Amino acid sequence: MNIENAQVQMRKGILEFCIMHIISRGEVYASDMLDELTSAKIMVVEGTLYPLLTRLKNSGLLDYKWVESSSGPPRKYYILTDMGKQFLEEMQKTWIELSDSVHTIVLKTQDLGAKNEQQPTN
Transcription regulator PadR N-terminal domain: from which residue to which, for each copy (predicted)? Predict the structure, then answer.
């Protein structure tokens, strides 16, 4: 199995959650989302982001508004709808449960590894 592919799949799994968190802070422009995701090392490209934003919009979780720009064409700023806010709250609960569960499993594995290292070999 290719580790890079596994890493990409893990990131894709949390991308929607991260995007909705970014938007939950207030109106946000897509390129600002890309910058934040890249800074957080959740690599994403426009070809991934825009279809996801469209899907979230079509699901009623996001909306957008056009804002005139003094330096070019109008910009589309995304916001969460009330339904999107509720959806994000549920996703947050799931994330906490999942994160705690994974952490528990990883700790047990690390503890077992530490015990095995301490045992003398014959």
Answer: 19-90
